[in-house]
Design goal:
EC number: 3.2.1.39
Order of helices and strands: EEHEHEHEHHEHHEEEHEHHEEHEHEEHHE
Number of strands: 16
Membrane topology: Lipid-anchor; GPI-anchor
Protein name: glucan endo-1,3-beta-D-glucosidase
Family: Belongs to the glycosyl hydrolase 17 family.
Catalytic activity: Hydrolysis of (1->3)-beta-D-glucosidic linkages in (1->3)-beta-D-glucans
Largest sheet: 8 strands, parallel, barrel
């Protein structure tokens, strides 16, 4: 749960500058502004002959369709974004924005004292084409940072606010008026979680959840947003009294007073049942009974449910199906399950030997591959499962064992903790020198997409030369890679520098859809 295991997501969009050809570069550690444009190994130049498969930018405008009378007063902002021609970049965008099946988000937890500002986080998220983010409150600075970012945000009502939210409708109305309405719809909020893992709390806390959810729904209805923003609450797997075999999955009877009205609320409002699932903990605490491969989706072992004959090759599916069977037993089979936290730590104490970067990479990569294929689970094949990976950053203020502070995909300085490709395609683990702008050895380079706009290129260059830690001094006037003096040429040099120093992974050539990979040496 967030209050003891703060786990969150981040996607953001940097604000593009005017189409001027200047950007910050680092020279001897000092950031300056200079004209931009060029790339590669010795000559630094980039050929204009690039991948012939070019497509025009396609702008998709999200029109405001007000189909309900109570929404007629709402004025929704139009959105537009580009459909990119590069196969790699397009795949990434489809997975996080257009993909018609399961969605993949990231949790953006902030239980740390060394994290980048929300604005920088939004830029990082946008660079990596993450389109779904979960936060655990309604922090105003975060909401502002994600305005017009093309990211769908899940926000939260902390457990500490359940009492005032459940007692008085006016408390919720005021919160909505002051904390949500001023930023919506520029900040695209799609879910509100009311409480987190309350079954881990005393029973009197659980009793507050449904009244608070009802008051949030009433507040949203007053402003015509109850069909645009879904309400739910998150749970740990401890909500079940039994999870093995999956067909015997059952809710803990001690929570019945809370679960029945909560499930009725979800069914009535077509909201998902939100669950936080961690095969890592099951393996760590039961290594004598659970194999590491089974926890990591490595498919080298099988577990057969004796009641159904269903075969399970990974723990994630088994835990999801245990919840499916528990819901079915209470006649709520149609409620969709959403995984609001899952992941694997990259570091732990000597006793937590499975908490390694390699295992974190294996789990998250296999998880993403499993989800984007929409294979479902043995009990519900083909079922779409939305997931949020925990977490965007390591969080140094979280209590508990060492692993609790090491679930992040990125360090606070925004560099990758391990070479994870969010597309699920996998990527080689390659350590590159920061100043290497040659090919990584795979014979690939990252250059600018021919159809990228100057504004998008400038925004990507600003990020790479700043938070991205690329040394951009070579494209300054009178420096070896300054010519040809064009934004596209300079951006290609900068893109490739970032790409090579981050392991030449597909995701490292995203740049908000402005980069593309090539197998032709551009020098």
């Amino acid at each position: 749960m967030e209050e003891s295991r703060d786990k969150t997501v981040g996607v953001g969009v940097g604000v593009a500058r005017a189409a001027v050809q200047t950007y910050p570069v680092k020279v001897n550690g000092i950031e300056t502004n200079t004209n931009t444009h060029s790339l590669t190994e010795t000559s630094c130049s980039v050929s204009d002959s690039r991948d012939s498969k070019k497509r025009n930018l396609v702008k998709l405008n999200n029109k405001n369709l007000q189909t309900h009378k109570e929404e007629e007063a709402m004025v929704m902002e139009g959105r537009s974004f580009s459909a990119i021609s590069s196969a790699i970049s397009l795949l990434t965008i489809m997975l996080f924005s257009f993909y018609p099946g399961s969605i993949i988000g990231v949790c953006y937890g902030r239980n740390a004292d060394d994290l980048p500002t929300p604005d920088k986080v939004a830029q990082l998220v946008q660079l990596h084409n993450i389109k779904y983010i979960r936060i655990y409150d309604s922090n105003i600075q975060v909401l502002k940072a994600f305005a017009n970012a093309g990211v769908e945000l899940m926000i939260g009502v902390p457990n500490s606010d359940l009492l005032p939210f459940s007692q008085f409708q006016s408390n919720v109305d005021t919160w909505l008026k002051n904390s949500i309405i001023p930023y919506y719809p520029a900040t695209k909020i799609t879910y509100i979680t009311v409480g987190a893992e309350v079954t881990e709390m005393p029973a009197n806390v659980s009793a507050l959840v449904v009244p608070a959810m009802q008051n949030v729904l009433a507040a949203l209805r007053k402003v015509g947003l109850h069909r645009k923003i879904k309400i739910s609450t998150t749970h740990s797997l401890g909500v079940l009294s039994r999870s093995f075999p999956p067909s015997a999955g059952a809710f803990n009877s001690s929570h019945a007073f809370f679960l029945k009205p909560m499930l009725e609320f979800l069914a009535e409002n077509q909201s998902p049942f939100m669950i936080d699932i961690y095969p890592y903990y099951a393996y760590r605490d039961s290594q004598a009974n659970i194999s590491l491969d089974y926890a990591l989706f490595e498919f080298s072992s099988e577990v057969i449910d004796p009641n159904t004959g269903l075969i399970y090759t990974n723990m994630f599916d088994a835990q999801i199906d245990a919840l499916y069977f528990a819901l079915t037993a209470l006649h709520f089979r149609t409620i969709k399950i959403m995984v609001t936290e899952t992941g694997w730590p990259s570091k732990g104490t000597p006793m937590e030997k499975a908490a390694t970067p390699d295992n974190a990479l294996i789990y998250n990569t296999n998880l993403v591959r499993h989800v984007i294929n929409d294979t479902g689970t043995p009990a519900k094949p083909g079922e779409e499962i939305d997931i949020y990976i925990f977490s965007l950053f390591n969080e140094n203020r979280k209590p508990g064992l060492e692993s609790e502070r090491n679930w992040g995909l990125y360090y606070p300085d925004q560099t990758s903790i391990y070479n994870f490709d969010l597309t699920g395609k996998g990527n080689p683990v390659v350590t590159m020198a920061a100043n290497n702008t040659s090919s990584s050895g795979n014979g690939t380079w990252c250059i600018t997409l021919p159809t990228a706009t100057e504004l998008n290129l400038q925004s990507a260059v600003d990020w790479a030369c700043g938070p991205g830690n690329v040394d951009c001094s070579a494209v300054q006037p009178s420096q070896p890679c300054y010519q040809p003096d064009t934004l596209a040429s300079h951006a290609s040099y900068i893109f490739n520098s970032y790409y090579q120093q981050n392991g030449a992974s597909d995701i490292a050539c995203g740049f908000g859809g402005s980069g593309m990979k090539t197998t032709k040496n551009p020098s």
